[in-house]
Amino acid sequence: MRTKPEPPPPLPPDNTPEEERRALLAEIKSTLAECEAQTKYIETTKFQVCASMVGLQGESDRNRIIWKGITEFANHAGSPDRIPEHLGMQLRATLILCTHSDDRPYEQSGSVFELDPFCDVHNLTKRTGVSVDEAFLTLAARMQAPFREMLAWIADPNRCDHSQRVRSLDFLLQQGNEGQSTYQYSVEDKFDDSGNIGSPWFYQKSPSSFASILAPIAKFIFEHLELYHDRVIPLDEAVPIVLCRREGCGKFAVSKRRTKDFCSDSCRTLSRQQEKPEEHAAYMRQYRRRNYSKRSK
After folding, report:
1. Which CA distances in Å does 256 have to 65, 226, 262?
2. How far is residue 176's CA from residue 196's CA, in Å, rounded to a whole number?
3. What is the pTM of this model?
4. For residues 41-65, b (16+ Cβ closer than 10 Å) or e, as one string?
5. How far is CA 97 from CA 67, 92, 142, 206, 255, in A?
6. How far apart are CA 198 and CA 193, in angstroms?
7. Residue 36 has what pLDDT?
8. Distance from C-alpha of 215 to C-alpha of 221, rounded to nearest angstrom
């Protein structure tokens, strides 16, 4: 039984005929190219799977996918004891993307998906005897309310009072400071800045432990706020989300332009109806006359 892959063919000795040497080197080059293509395909597929899981199939912007996952979690309005499985899967995909610094999750992302690095999950399983999956869903439900309050603060800080701002900042710092997340680093022995015959990294980085399931997300948000404070990126790039202004909605959405104030076109229309009902009624009468009135013969 084969327990490990076959070793690569050895380089030809010096006395090998030139034609045979070229053929063997071409075979080695082809094998390396095939391995590299497979690796890139696997990594790209992982990224696309994460994007699809949070509801942005085909999206290539890692940050927008993460913000989409964040808003999906914050918008959940269900049981405070346990989030549903589908939301848990979206949250896991978001965590995978948050724990890696580029658009291609590394091989170690599997451990994040399996919740291996999260200390609070394993502490709860030891204390209560529930499964890892159930512990994750329970903890997510418990932390959803303060997370939503924090997200409302960064989405529209001027709509918050002072006490909410203080609680939100405390929560963000508690979950996202450096001590909450630890990583392992190892040097890369095959460095190549092009990425064609090696890896374009000086070292590999993989998640080691997180104090809580929201630590990677809070760290991601905190880092974006710091980039905005340092004037590296504009506000609409640092925090590309909105808190819907329609009374009675209050959902979050990933913004498409800076002036967007509503989570959807329907909420924008409903808000106009609520704020200016006379104008909306007059507009609808004109719209119906223009589009639905019978044409005179």
Report:
1. 13, 22, 11
2. 35
3. 0.74
4. eebeebbeebbebbebeebeebbbb
5. 10, 9, 22, 12, 19
6. 8
7. 54
8. 10
* Residue 243: alpha-carbon gap to chain centroid: 19
Q: Are 120 and 129 in contact (CB under 8 A)?
A: no
Q: Report whether pLDDT(206) > 90.
A: no
- Please give the structure tokens belonging to residue 230: 């340092």
Q: Which residue has the tokens 């509801």?
A: 55
177 CB neighbour count, 10 Å cutoff: 14
Residue with tokens 């892959």: 5
The pLDDT mean for the chain works out to 81
| Paired strand residues for 207 | 183
| Mean pLDDT value across residues 89-116 | 74
**H-helix or E-strand spanning residue 266:** helix 265-275
pLDDT at residue 189, as a whole number: 87
**Contact by Cβ (8 Å): 213, 120:** yes
CA distance 118 to 111: 10
Percent of the chain with pLDDT over 70: 73
